[in-house]
């Protein structure tokens, strides 16, 4: 079994010319598979069954292996058996049709409403950088913009008297979004300073040299604001997540939030229902007399 495994890895290296990273990953996964076979007294590759593989996957999952790692192991196993079948050493692939356990979907991190207010209501210097950064933060949270939508925003996309901003999102889809009162105030304070910097084009957010500010610069300014005002790491998408979560918590209108975010599939928006449920569950645990844990103070 080891000799055939070595021949397959050499095939990957010399004939397929896979990267060193891929070769190392497959080698590690297939070594795990071989060790399992030896422990289970499976003495030849054709003797490995689908039930054996299911047992291995279940064992690894129980010991904390991620769904992604298990998917890679199954992929490596399929590759090995394709090679063995082609070389005449096996007739069937025991990994065919096997899927790894579904991984737990990670919920987006958000600020609660008090933390969002703490971020946006902090002391503000009356200068170019401070006014620009405040306008960016307010617009992120007010309208749920993506980072790319904010940096690509031009003046002709702003209609402050009407309280609207027009952005071009994924797939070149245009959508109009409301701009809240505080965001309008911040933008109105920023735009005169922007004009004084002799902008190179119609970009709403520019550097002191008049050039459109880039994504990395925006990420840096948002992160610095998070450390300064909240003492935590903050990134633009966390403000978008917070916007979505707070809108859904208040309105309970999933379709409206989908439209505001520009999601093509409502399933993408539904992740925020889980966030809202977590909040409701926490309130329930604290308030309902039959939910309180034993020994908790009344």
Question: How is this structure best described in words?
Answer:
The structure is a single chain. This protein has 298 residues and is mostly helical. It has 13 helices and three strands. It has two domains: 2-86, Orthogonal Bundle (DNA polymerase, domain 1), CATH 1.10.150.130; 113-285, Intergrase catalytic core (hpI Integrase, Chain A). It has helices spanning 2-16, 20-39, 50-62, 67-86, 113-120, 128-143, 147-151, 181-196, 215-230, 236-251, 254-261, 266-269, 271-287, and strands at 158-159, 164-168, 174-178. It has a three-stranded antiparallel sheet with strand order 1-2-3, with no helix packed on it. Strand 2 and strand 3 form a beta hairpin. It is elongated and about 75 Å long.
């Amino acid at each position: 079994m080891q000799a055939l495994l070595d021949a397959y890895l050499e095939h990957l290296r010399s004939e397929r010319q896979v990267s060193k990273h891929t070769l190392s990953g497959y080698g590690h996964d297939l070594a795990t598979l071989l060790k399992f076979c030896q422990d289970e007294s499976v003495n030849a590759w054709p003797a490995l069954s689908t039930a054996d593989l299911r047992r291995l996957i279940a064992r690894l999952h129980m010991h904390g292996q991620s769904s992604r790692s298990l998917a890679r192991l199954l992929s490596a196993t399929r590759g090995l058996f394709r090679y063995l079948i082609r070389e005449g050493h096996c007739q069937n692939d025991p990994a065919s049709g096997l899927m790894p356990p579904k991984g737990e979907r990670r919920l987006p991190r958000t600020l609660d409403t008090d933390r969002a207010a703490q971020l946006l209501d902090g002391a503000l210097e009356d200068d170019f950088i401070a006014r620009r950064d405040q306008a960016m933060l307010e617009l992120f949270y007010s309208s749920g913009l993506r980072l790319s939508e904010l940096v690509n925003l031009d003046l002709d996309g702003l209609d402050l008297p009407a309280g609207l901003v027009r952005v071009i999102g994924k797939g070149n889809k245009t959508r109009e979004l409301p701009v809240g009162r505080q965001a309008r105030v911040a933008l109105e304070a920023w735009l005169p300073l922007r004009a004084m910097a002799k902008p190179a084009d119609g970009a709403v957010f520019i550097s002191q040299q008049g050039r459109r500010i880039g994504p990395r610069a925006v990420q840096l300014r948002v992160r610095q604001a998070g450390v300064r005002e909240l003492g935590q790491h903050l990134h633009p998408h966390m403000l978008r997540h917070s916007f979505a979560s707070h809108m859904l918590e208040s309105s309970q209108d999933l379709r409206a939030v989908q439209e505001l975010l520009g999601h093509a599939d409502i399933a993408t928006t539904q992740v925020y229902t889980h966030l809202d449920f977590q909040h409701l569950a926490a309130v329930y645990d604290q308030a309902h007399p039959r939910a309180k844990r034993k020994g908790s103070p009344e």
